[in-house]
Amino acid sequence: MKVISYNLQKHKAAGELAALVSAHDPDILCLQECDVPELPAEIGGLVLADATQSNRLGLALFYRASTYRLQGTRILGLKKSLHDRIAKPAHERVLGARLRDIDDGRDFIVASFHAAPLTALNSLRRHQIRAALDELASLGDGLPQLMVGDYNYPIFKEHLGQAVRDHGYALTMSDDHTYTRYRVFRGHYDFATSKGFDIEHITTLPQASSDHRPILVTVTAD
Predict the structure, then answer these.
(1) CA–CA–CA angle 122, 181, 211 (5° rounding)
(2) How many independent structural domains does the chain possess?
(3) d(Cα 25, Cα 186) in Å, to the nearest integer?
(4) In the chain, what are the helix, strand and coil shares in percent, each to the nearest 5?
(5) Burial class of residue 38, CB neighbours in 10 A (0-12, 13-18, 19+)
(6) Which letter, b or e, does each residue of 147-185 get, where b requires 16 or more Cβ atoms within 10 Å of its Cβ?
(7) HEC-encoded secondary structure of 41-105
(8) What is the CATH number of the domain that holds 217?
(9) CB 191 within 8 A of CB 169
(10) What is the pLDDT of residue 151?
(11) pLDDT tens-digit profile of 102-139?
């Protein structure tokens, strides 16, 4: 299974999506910072599973309907940072979907995630990540689970990695930096947390009009 995650930078990179899907043929597309009303219902054979409705910076998830059947979705609000309370960019920071493989009948959970911005403490983002993983599990107890997106966590990842492992999940970063626009903030912002999946590799794709680079996650079930 191939999953692309892309932060569109306030929908700026939305025009790239059709070409991105055509070039890499993903099974699932997870978006952050999109203008939901402007999204199409389908992109290159991927259909919209669900999207946030109250966010200024929206989340969306597309999937290949010829391969999977949508069993349900869940949109989650998480503990707010001070920036969230003042600027109100995103009340809902997780969008999860339970999908069923048409061929083998197995279900799994996949999610698009956008953590609090860099003005928040890392401790708050760790809290958001743990809460998101716990709440997503309610879509199906014991199912394989993959959460991709913009974690806004460029430094001190050893602390995050240990916290995620202690929670029973794995943290996997891509092969190159995903945010390079400003050198002082350069780092791996976009990556994956998972359980019940074998992540073969995460490839950082070329940068275009967004300040983030999309990532391509290739996984198989354990």
Answers:
(1) 80
(2) 1
(3) 28
(4) 25, 40, 35
(5) exposed
(6) bbbbbbbbeebeebbebbeeeebebbbbeebbbbeeeee
(7) CEECCEEEEEECCCCCCEEEEEEECCCEEEEEEEEEECCCCHHHHHHCCCCEEEEEEEEEECCCC
(8) 3.60.10.10
(9) no
(10) 93
(11) 999 999 999 999 998 877 678 888 889 999 999 999 99
Helical H runs in the chain?
Answer: 17-24, 82-87, 122-136, 157-166
| Terminal-to-terminal C-alpha distance of the chain | 12
Neighbours of 25 (CB within 10 A): 12
What tens digit of pLDDT does each residue of 76-90 get?
Answer: 876 565 445 444 545
Mean pLDDT of the chain: 90
**Helices and strands, number each (H, E), in the chain:** 4, 13
Residue 175, phi then psi, degrees to nearest 5: -85, 0
Residues of the chain with pLDDT under 70: 78-90, 120, 154-156, 182-185
DSSP β-bridge partners for residue 62? 29, 48
Q: Which two tokens stand for residue 98?
A: 């339970």
Tokens standing for residue 25: 């043929």
Please give the pLDDT value at position 79: 57
**Which range of residues forms the domain containing residue 41?**
2-221
Question: Distance (Å, rounded) from C-alpha 125 to C-alpha 221?
Answer: 27
